[in-house]
Structure formats: C-alpha cells, structure tokens
Design a protein that fits this description.
This protein is mostly beta strands and 626 residues long. The protein has 1 helix and 47 strands. The radius of gyration is 34 Å and the shape is elongated.
C-alpha cells in the first residue's frame, strides 16, 4: 500500500481496523479471491498516488483529508466508498502542484462504488470515469484546470447534486489544447443519470456532450462560462449526442446552448425541456450542422420544449452589444414547442438552410431586434429565415415589438397557421422571394405594411386580417394593410399569388399592388383606409402582359376619391361591391388584352362612379351602377 499516514498511531489503528473488518467478512467459497478492505481517516498523504485493486475495497471515513502528489491520482479498479457528510466532508487536495483526481477504470463497473460529500481542490482533473457506474452524491470540485468530471467509454454513473466552482483560469492563455475549463464532460458512448448540477466560473463549457452519448441530466444551474479562445464557450455543448436535458437555468455565458452535428452516421438529437437561457454574450441557442454543404440533408438535430431566451447581448451580458442572435439554426433542423424569446437586442429567431424537419408549434417573440436604425433589416427582425427548403412548419406564432419587421422570410418557402404580428417597427410579415402557405395571419399596428409580399410567386395566404398598419406613412409603398410588389411579375400555371379571405381595417392604405400579375384577391374586404383607395394596383412598370383576378371584393370607403384605382392593369373583376360614399372605380387598362367586369355593384359621388380609360376590349356582364 502506497499510503503514508501523518501520525505514529494511525498505522496501528489501521491494522486493527483491517482485522476487525476481516473477522466479519463471509467465508469465501472455494476458489474465490479474498477482498482486502482498507479504511482511511484523519489525513492521508499519497505522494505517489494510490490504486484500489480489482479485488479491493477502500473506505474513506467522514472528515478525512486526502493529499495527493503532483500529477498523481487515486485509481479505482475495485470499489471505493467515500462516507463524507454535509457537516464533515471528505477533502481531496494536493501536496504541491496539481493532482489528477480520482480515476474509475472499467474493472470497477458494477462493484458498488459510491462517493458522498467529497470536495476536490488543486486538481487538473476532478473525477474521471472509464466505463464504470459509481454513485456520486454531493461532490464539489473547485477550480479543476481541465475537466471537473470526465466520462468515457460508456460510463453510466448516477450523479446527484454536483457543484463545480471555477475551472480553467490557471491554464487560460497558456494551454495549447482547447480542453480546459470544462465542468461535466460526457463522451464516447457514455450515458449518466444526473440530478442536480451547479457550475459557475468556467472558461470553456459547463456541460460538454460528445461522441454518441446520451443519458438524463436534470436540475441544472450554469453561470459565467466565458472566455475560451480555442473552442466555442457554452453553458451546454452537445455534439453528436442525444441526451435528455431538463429543468435548466443558464446565465451570462458566451453561448447558452450550442448543438453541433459533425459525424456522419451518428445521431445528434438532444431533447431540452423547461430551459431558461439569459444574458448570453453571443447566442442564446445555436443549432448547426458543421458541414454547411449538407444543405440537402437537414434532419432535426435538437428538440426544445418550454424554452425561454432573453437578454442576449443585452446590458447584463458579460460584454453587451456584440451578440448575433437569440436563437439560431444553420444547415440543420429543430423541433420547438412553447418557446418564449424576449427582450433580446438582436434578431430573436434566425434560420439559414433549414427544411421540413423544422417544426415550430408555439413560439412567442417579443421585443427583439437590434435597436440601431441603420442596422441590416434582418438584424432588426423578430423572426428571420433565409434560403429555406420547402417546407418548415410554423404554427401558433406571436411576434410583437420588434425593432424592425416582425417576420422576415427571404428565399424559400414555409407553411403554418395562426400567426399574430403586432407593434413591430417595420412590416408585420414581410415575404421576399418566398413561397408562404399561411392560414390565419393577423397583423396589427405595425410601422410598415401589415403583410408585404415582394418578388414572390406561388403565394397562398388565407384568412388575413390587418388593422392600424403604416399609420403616418407618406406613400402607399411605405404603409399598407396588404402590399404586393412584383408578386408575381409573370403569368405561370400554379405560380399565382393568392390572398383568400383577406381583410384590411383602418390601415393607412388598404390593399396595394405594384407591378404584380397573376395576382388573385379572393373573398376579401377593405374598410376605411386612412389614405388612398381601398384597392390600389399600378402595373405601369411591368414589361410583361398578365392579368389580375379580383373575385368577391367588398370595399367600404367614406370620403372623396376612388375606392378602386387600377393603373395599366388587365383584370378579371367579378363580384366587386362598393359601399359608403366614394368616387367609385378608376380603371386604366394595360396592353391589348381582354378584361372582364361582372356581377358587381359600383357606386360613387360627384356624378361619377366608373371611369374607364384605354380599354381595347372590356367584357361587362351583370353590372349595377349607382
């Protein structure tokens, strides 16, 4: 035995204890190997480290202080029992320099090792477990240089109430390896059960998952993980693994949660439940596939249920004002349910190169976006997506009080239902080169348009209600209830832009279209826009010939001026019903193409209700004028 005790009487006590323990052991069966039991108490000095043999038992009594030599460890091949208490813990420290902590080898698997109320200081590592399953309860690791608790080779410990205080500071700036300042690392097919983890003041990671690992982690508090320069610093990092992580608070880390899929053939799909991430410096949550060229292979790499993200890049972050996003997805996919992302002075939810594996059911975004007016429009959005494969699903979406647009979707397509966007600093919902299929979209009191569709085709909007949008806008192009611009600018089968059951109430301008054909306004209504006509379409900038379809349109306008203005427009107008006191309809035709006007009632004041200009051929049927 390599232990050296610090007083003259301890050796005799140890020998007597061993004899007593041996007297109560059961008689071994023929051919069995007798276990040797060692008991430590007082102060135990291990200049050259210590090994618990595969057939041995080590018992460490409450109040024991263990002092290890520099670079040495306690290797457990057999069984260790640490019997510390809350009032009288066991201490593991260094004689001089830094020790390597306790190391469990695979031979200790299933032998019943347990550690209770142990405090580890002065370690390069705290506890390292290779393929074993000890029970760790009330373990505290202070300022481990590299990793406080490190799991490899299918380790499956049960860990309760682990506290990690600091780590990596002594190596920061001098380590040539990124692997320092890590709290709990789980790798190489390991699957622990962890209930209760507090980690504070680490350099690189609070929890570090890698290597096709899993397990259950719950009741976690992580604060102040910041400063790494050789790796991404994060409260929780998950790489190529699939743990279940629940009931977590992460505060003031460089990145709150970072999920990265790297290895082909392995599965990255952590599940996070009841997570709160606050005051991150760069990103609250990031999910990505490391190889961004894999944009045609986009599985869901993370699941979030009941997530809250706030304060990213805000005044309480370690360095305010340098954040990128509150929640970001890149070349990947996520499943999100019941999430709240609020009070982040950066874009709330950002996604690049996602696809149908992304499913969002219940996302609230409030008070997000860069507050600087000259910032890029996407940085001021509540929700921003670009280059999207058909088709993510976004249901039950609420976006309010963004500094710029509420929803900005650019290139690609998505589907969803029940969107509410209000009080945003630009348009409520802004679609650019995008194919949305959205049912039930309510857009109120936004500074720009209620809904804007730009340079898009194959647009399907149903049950859209806008009100109070663009108030004070000087032009129709700056603030309308529903705005179309080059949507669509060419006639093409199946690529039409349609708005079915769309209603504008008291917007600065009603329904406005510029240079748009193959546009269908179906079963829609406009009520009392503050400025301009109810429907305002100007196709004078188009080089192609095409039609607009207006079918079952009701407009209520009570002021002088036209209720409908069509400039350079060829159209089929069916079921147009004007009410109130207005100037009726002004319609200047486009190129030589037949237009139709049918089953409509048009009224006006001032002696006119229908002004027709430059029509080569207009087919009229069942028209009432008043």
């Amino acid at each position: 035995m390599r232990a050296r005790l610090d007083n003259s009487g301890s050796l005799a006590v140890l020998i007597i204890s061993l004899l007593l323990c041996a007297s109560i052991l059961p008689i071994a069966a023929s051919g069995a190997t007798t276990r040797a039991t060692t008991v430590w108490s007082g102060t135990v000095i291990l200049q050259d480290g210590y090994t618990v043999g595969a057939q041995d038992i080590l018992i460490v009594q409450a109040g024991t202080t263990i002092r290890l030599g520099s670079g040495e460890d306690i290797t457990v091949d057999g069984r260790i029992t640490v019997e510390g208490t809350v009032s009288n813990p066991v201490l593991l420290e260094s004689i001089i320099g830094n020790h390597d902590g306790i190391v469990f080898n695979q031979s200790s698997q299933g032998l019943g090792s347990s550690i209770d109320n142990l405090t580890i200081t002065d370690g390069v590592y705290g506890i390292t477990i290779y393929g074993s399953n000890p029970i760790l309860t009330n373990v505290r690791v202070e300022n481990a240089d590299r990793v406080a608790v490190d799991l490899f080779d299918g380790a499956s410990p049960r860990i309760y109430d682990l506290v990690i205080d600091g780590g990596g500071q002594d190596l920061h700036g001098i380590s040539t390896s990124w692997r320092y300042g890590i709290g709990l690392s789980v790798g190489a097919y390991s699957a622990p059960v962890i209930d209760g983890l507090q980690a504070d003041g680490l350099i690189t990671r609070g929890v570090n998952y890698w290597g096709n690992s899993g397990g259950l982690v719950s009741n976690v508090e992580i604060t102040n993980v910041t400063g790494a320069t050789l790796a991404v610093a994060a409260g929780i990092w998950v790489e190529d693994s699939r743990p279940l992580i629940t009931d977590v608070d992460i505060t003031r880390c460089d990145n709150g949660i970072f999920v990265r899929h790297i290895t082909t053939g392995w599965t990255t799909r952590p599940v996070f439940q009841r997570i709160v991430v606050e005051d991150s410096m760069y990103r609250g949550v990031m999910v990505e596939q490391y190889n961004h060229s894999q944009y045609s292979n986009l599985p869901a790499h993370a699941v979030f249920d009941e997530l809250e993200v706030r304060g990213t890049g805000g005044p309480n972050a370690n360095t305010p004002g340098i954040a990128f996003s509150a929640f970001e997805v890149n070349t990947s996919g996520v499943v999100v349910s019941d999430a709240i992302i609020e009070d982040n002075p950066v874009v709330g939810f950002k996604a690049y190169l996602i696809g149908p594996s992304t499913i969002i059911n219940g996302l609230t975004l409030n008070n997000n976006g860069k507050p600087i007016a000259n910032s890029a429009i996407n940085d001021r959005a509540g929700l921003f997506m670009r280059s999207i494969n058909w088709a993510p699903v976004i249901n039950d979406l609420i976006v309010t009080n963004s500094s710029g647009p509420g929803v900005l979707l650019w290139k690609g397509g998505a589907m969803g239902q029940d969107w509410y966007v209000a009080d945003n600093g630009a348009s409520g919902a802004d679609f650019r080169e995008f194919h949305p299929a959205v049912t039930i979209l309510r857009s109120f009191d936004n500074a720009g348009h209620g809904v804007a569709v730009r340079d898009s085709s194959n647009v399907e909007l149903e049950y859209v209600i806008t009100s109070g949008n663009g108030l004070g806008a000087a032009t129709a192009e700056a603030g309308a209830g529903i705005y179309f611009d080059e949507a669509n600018d060419v006639m093409s089968g199946g690529k039409n832009v349609s708005c079915y059951n769309c209603f504008s109430y008291g917007d600065q301008h009603g329904i406005v279209a510029r240079d748009s054909i193959d546009l269908q306004l179906l079963a829609s209504e406009v009520h009392d826009p503050i400025s301009g006509p109810g429907v305002d379409i100007d196709n004078s900038g188009l080089s192609r010939v095409g039609l607009v379809l207006i079918d079952d349109m009701r407009i209520n306008l009570n002021r002088s001026g036209y209720a409908v203005e069509l400039e350079d427009v060829n159209a089929f107008v069916i079921g147009l019903d004007l009410s109130g006191d207005s100037g009726g309809v002004y319609w200047r035709a486009g190129d030589d193409r037949t237009s139709r006007l049918a089953s409509s009632t048009i009224s006006g004041i001032g002696g006119t209700c229908l002004d027709l200009v430059d029509h080569t051929e207009l087919l009229v049927h069942n028209l009432g004028l008043a």
